[in-house]
């Protein structure tokens, strides 16, 4: 599980800490806290979404095979070209990466500030932004990857079946819900909302792409679609307003109703002429409620009003569409007619050692016994310190570690956390064993987020140390991330076997 850029320590040792080093990829989080790890403040989130962080360019190159064309999932915009890649991090998580043209955002601080603003949004209806990268001329955004294509693909270019009526209502409601959440969070502006911005996750649930919360460049155009679908006020002044977003949502409603991309002016003429049924998608073959369709057409008509002040707000969208939801007991992937997107956890390819077996059973007591017996032998290697370094501060730090070891042995895990934290916070020496021990203490105190962070830090100090991977596997399992935990356990077993072979 990659946790830092290439400047990370490569050698097992008790070494002096580089205060300029920063861990670039932050751990998963399952609460709403704000944490600081190795100098980077991260926004912790709900539901197993990674905390927002800065990625190194090397991380993203590795994830995309150096931005290979084989990893491109979309390209758009002649005036402000940008490309979206899919990629896979070393921790096996799939990501979507939006790569802007060179110098689209000349000021890296401005780009970072914008990204951090969007990164604070966390919601189940969004394909959430999990990070960014500023490196030289490169400006990249990193988001959760949605594996089941776009609304445009399912609506306009379907191969097996068209989207059924209840699912179309669900799409409209979920996107209204997303817009209402973002408006309440102070991010009401969304650039170029259209059927390509609506994505389907591994469960087939529709989500709104977070990329639309940032323009394609600092001064770039906010809309890349045909002028016929652009809010009229944007054509007048070039500015996006909350009301412009409502207009664009109206065009998405028309898409859902008609199954075609119809210019709003043409659709409004037909709605006024009471020709609603002529606008309905013929592929539905009449399998829809006329009453519900009339409600949606009326809402679309209000969204597409020429005067911005006559359009509804996001709360109106939510409250209008919520009563139309039915088939709540049917999963989205079933309604879409697609298989549920799951990757089976890999079975261990190597016989498990006592440590591996204890971790696979999540037997924290057995793990504790193994760490007590192992002591600090994995820290041996380059533990030479000059005479000048044996200061009083050094002696105090080593005394804190000794007190932590005694508390750890005696199973006083909260005291061990406090003592090990004193050792770590001084920062003169870095011990992977201390991080592993504190990680287990956090697990025994029911703090898996903190345990995962310490496991990642232990790996950062000693990249090939199986124990660092083992404690991460247990923490991921505690966070209900079973597939990631299985991957991590298998990787730990592989590293442990390689080490045994070298002996």
From TrEMBL:
EC number assigned by the record:
2.7.11.1
User: What is one process in the GO biological process aspect for this record?
Assistant: brassinosteroid mediated signaling pathway
**So what does this thing catalyse?**
L-seryl-[protein] + ATP = O-phospho-L-seryl-[protein] + ADP + H(+); L-threonyl-[protein] + ATP = O-phospho-L-threonyl-[protein] + ADP + H(+)
InterPro entries recorded: BSK, Kinase-like_dom_sf, Prot_kinase_dom, Ser-Thr/Tyr_kinase_cat_dom, TPR-like_helical_dom_sf, TPR_BSK1_C
Question: How does this protein sit in the membrane?
Answer: Lipid-anchor
Report the protein name in the record: non-specific serine/threonine protein kinase
- The yes or no answer to whether the keyword Membrane is present is yes
GO CC annotation:
plasma membrane
Q: What class of enzyme is it?
A: transferase
Keywords of this protein's UniProt record, alphabetized? Answer: ATP-binding, Brassinosteroid signaling pathway, Cell membrane, Kinase, Lipoprotein, Membrane, Myristate, Nucleotide-binding, Serine/threonine-protein kinase, Transferase
Against Pfam families, the record matches this protein to:
PK_Tyr_Ser-Thr, TPR_BSK1_C
Domain Protein kinase positions: 70-325
Where does the record place it?
Answer: Cell membrane
Entry's Gene Ontology molecular function annotations:
ATP binding; protein serine/threonine kinase activity
Species the sequence originates in: Heracleum sosnowskyi
> Could you say which protein family the record assigns here?
Belongs to the protein kinase superfamily. Ser/Thr protein kinase family.
Record carries keyword S-adenosyl-L-methionine: no
